Each structure stands twice: as C-alpha cells, then as structure tokens.
Amino acid sequence: xxxELRLNELESLVRDVKxxxxxxxxxxxxxxxxRLSDSIENPNRKRIKRFYLNISYxxxxxxxxxxxxxxxxxxxxxxxxxxxxxxxADAFQEENEANEITLIIDGKTITTSKEKSVITYSKNGxxxxxxxxIGSEELSPDKKSVVDDYNCVIVPKGKQIxxxxxxxxKLFVNSRSRLIYPKVFSAKQRELYVEGxxxxxxxxxxxxxFVVKTINFNVEVLGTVFNVSSYKELKKSTITLVExxxxxxxxxxxxxxLKPSQSVDFISGKLGLPEHTDVSLHTDWVHGYYIxxxxxxxxxxxxLSFYYDINFVCDxxxxxxxxxxxxxxxxxxxxxxxxxxxxxxxxxxxxGEKFLVTTSNPQSRAE
Length: 367
Known about the structure:
Elements lengths: L6 H11 L8 H16 L15 H12 L13 H10 L9 E5 L2 E5 L3 E6 L5 E3 L2 E3 L6 H6 L3 E6 L4 E5 L5 E4 L3 E6 L7 E12 L8 E4 L3 E5 L3 E6 L5 E8 L2 E5 L4 E4 L3 E6 L2 E2 L3 E2 L3 H4 L5 E8 H12 L2 E4 L7 E7 L4 H12 L1 E6 L2 E6 L8
Parallel strand pairs: 3-7, 10-11, 21-24
Antiparallel strand pairs: 1-2, 1-6, 3-4, 4-5, 6-9, 7-8, 8-10, 9-10, 10-13, 11-12, 12-15, 13-14, 14-17, 15-16, 17-18, 17-19, 20-22, 23-24
C-alpha cells in the first residue's frame, strides 16, 4: 500500500512545497489527512496512483512530515499493515562501526555503546536511556490528536535492551532485532512491529488490546507474558506463551489460540498447531542464557550465529550431534566457544570471516 510512496518522490514533492506549508491551518491538514486515510482504509479502492505536483498542498505538508522525520507518521487510530511496517523497518537500517544500540526518536539518532541498556518511556512520551533523560518536550494533547510519533530501536549483534513503553509494557529485546512503536499509544489501540526476538510483559488494559505485528503474523493480547522470535533471515518463527492468553493470526486469516506453556511455529508461510513446551528453552535468553534440550548442534550454532553475527561452517558428520545444557551469552564470544569445546567435544578454527566446526572426538560423530 505504501510501497509506492518512495522516499525520493516525497523529497521532490517536499522541495516544491516546503515554503508554502505555513499557508494551511491545522484544520485543513486534518481534513486532507482524513480524506487520505479513508482512501487507504477502503478495501474497494483503486490502486493508489503516483503523487504528482498538483496534489493539494495540505496533503503535501503531510508528506513533509514523513520525510523530515525520517519515518512515516500515521493518523491516530489507523492500524498500519505489516508490509508498511516492514518498509519502515527497512528504512531504519542504521549501522555504525562501533556496533552500538541505536534509538531513533523525533528524527534524531541516539546511540549507546553499553552491552545492555534500559530505555524507558513515560506516559507522556518522555524518554530516558540508562536513567538519563533524553530531551524535555512532552506531547501536547493537540499534537497527539494529529499524529502518533513512531520510534525505532535497533539492537546490534551481541547486545540486548530492556524497553518500557508508555503504557507500562516491558520488553526485553534480543540481539539483531528492530522494533517500531509510538512514543505514546492512542486511546483505541496499542501496536508495535518486531523484526527479531523480544520477550513481552504486556500491561493489562481490557479496553485497549495490544497487537504485536511481524512480517508474517500478528499476536493479539490484552495483558500477558510471551516471547516472539521472528527473524526475517530464518524460515521459522516461534511464539511462546508464558502467562495469560494470545491469539496468533497469519495473513491468510488462519488463527490459533495459545495457553500458558504452549508455543506455535510459523514455517515457510504456514502457521502450525500449538504444542506444549518448556518455556525456558525460549525465554531464558532474557536472563543471559541459551538453554538447549537434545538440540542438534547445527541449531545451536544457528542461534549463536544470529546472536553474535558469526558465520559457522559445521562438519556434516556432527551437525545432528544432540546437546543439552545452557550457554552463558553474557560472557565473551571466545568463552562461549570454549564452553562448547569442553562440553560438546567440538573444535573451532577461524578461517577468514568464518569458523570451521569439527569434532575433537571421532566417536562423537553423528550417524
């Protein structure tokens, strides 16, 4: 839907109308926004055409907001579809050589080099990072009635964050993940977008449901504790429920309800059936551990590969070697490899940008 609104087109449009934005009242902007919103929400609408320079200036001012803030802004109470969120997430691919945690807020980029940071939003949208307040401006009621400001947090390899949203919902965000969410939730909906892995403790509010969106599915809750693992690079995504209840829906409207200690997988475009699980296998990363229970070595290496952004090449003869135990991911990467060497009997040899994995004990080779 929004893919046709290419950034270069918007920038061109903005340059043409930037000097004229003061000609319009807030009321005229709201009217034009409502017209645009109605066309977006109408399922029978025709395909949106390319914006031309004769577009109304009020709508152009909205485009200016989109470009100048480096992200799309959405009218309050309009639910954004998954593909639109994915497009926004792609625009937020902030990379830095220092491998820092990145927060994009109000069009500004803020970074922290800590291994694990704490980001907190107040009810009014004020932000603090590791107990340091970022800015002092609060959203006024008038501003909140016009737009929801969407922020993005990017967690690089080997790092994690604790994030508290404006409604009190607490999230633990794992390595190599991106989240998009508003500074302040609207009065009718709470939703965010996840790429990667996050553990959520959702603040209960029966009147305002909470929706976690990914590129493949939505998870709807009222107040609960659960884990979502949805990396674009992997074929399998997993939702694990710790407390409460959730409903998982894919793009084909297939839906499953989960009970505590159940998980469901989304594999190659298909939503599976709920299965009983040991939730610690999916959630103990929050406490700094990866737990394994008769897990093939290749799956263990895949998990470590995503956490540390390291490429492993495993000898085929030991890929299915079953491992049980836990790895402390709070330690250095070298210590993790040493623990695997001592407990699993495998050797690691660095070759260029990758690690070759072979057996230390020929008798441990999987058949």
